[in-house]
Amino acid sequence: MANGELIFEAPWQATVFGMARALSEAGLYDWDEFRGYLIRTIALRGREDEGDYAYYDHFLTALETLLADRGFVSPESLQARCREFRERPHGHDH
Amino acid sequence: MSEHDDHPASQQSIRAEAIESLLIDKGLIDEAAVDEVIVQFNERVGPMNGARIVAKAWKDPDFKSRLLADGTRAIEEFEFTGGQVEKLVVVENTPEVHNVVVCTLWSCYPWAVLGLPPKWYKDPSYRARVVREPRRVLEDFGVEISASKELRVWDSSAEIRYMVLPEPPSDGENQSEEELAARVSRDAMIGVALL
Questions:
Q1: A75 touching B (Cβ < 8 Å)
Q2: Shortest CB distance from A12 goes to which of B10, B117, B124?
Q3: Cys bridge to B165: A21, B19, B71, B92, which one at CB 3.0-4.6 A?
Q4: A4: pLDDT confidence band, cut at 50, 70 and 90?
Q5: For residues B112 and B52, is the Cβ–Cβ distance under 8 A?
Q6: Domain spans of chain B, in order of start
């Protein structure tokens, strides 16, 4: 079967997809609710000519927005954590 | 997969990692659950589900007519995990008609029966071209559809997901349902390959 094709281009895409599903399976939100966020994100930011990479970018933005709206992860705490991770010494990969 | 010294992690990977670590801190998620989803979609929710449906439809005319009449209900008996089969509509390839599926909007895809969409399915050029020049696009996939055959393009939406029931392989008559299922490719169920 010619089904063994790589689906994610980078590990973060798999992580984002996995998180979005796992949170929904854990009952934090309904999958349809996430889908609504994704559709709106793409409607707002999507472009005709964008490639696959942008798809998971939108997926990530949709998840961020939903988590912020529902009070699970505030934009401030996310920014702070991102800064922390960016300042890690190079070569750190976990 | 590691980020190398000379290639700092992308903005997205840092954001994804930061979200995950915050959710872990709050006890809302654990890494194992995230990994489990990925494994499930890669291995268990993959196109083998669709292949089982196709093989059963070839073998069982009664199931086939139920499948074509109401895909969503007909596949209930398989109890697939992975959720999310919105309305599933199965379209049949015949000697007269070839069907191909696209989502021009973005990437609506019948996850529960085909797993995650392949990269090219989400590609803007596939999405635009298959509507405009389906025969040419199929040629790019190495599929030649004779001019006398009708070609139908189905545009999936958030509500309706299409799947193609391919024509059975000509030499498959004596094969078991399992053997037949192993011959059904994901691409054939999207309509961009023949068996």
A1: no
A2: B10
A3: B92
A4: very low
A5: no
A6: 11-43, 46-190
Is A44 in CB contact (< 8 Å) with chain B?
no
Give the sign of the dihedral formed by CA B136, CA B142, CA B147, CA B149.
Answer: negative
Domain ranges of chain A: 11-86
Convert the pLDDT of each residue in A44-88 to its tens digit: 877 666 655 577 888 999 999 999 999 999 999 999 999 999 888
Number of other CB atoms surrounding residue B150 within 10 Å = 10
Supply the ipTM of this predicted assembly: 0.87
Residue B79 touches partner A, C-beta closer than 8 Å: no
Chain B residues within an 8 Å CB radius of A84: 18
Nearest alpha carbon to residue B183 among A66, A52, A11, A3 = A3
The 10 Å Cβ neighbour count of residue B92 is: 14
CATH hierarchy code of domain B46-190: 3.90.330.10
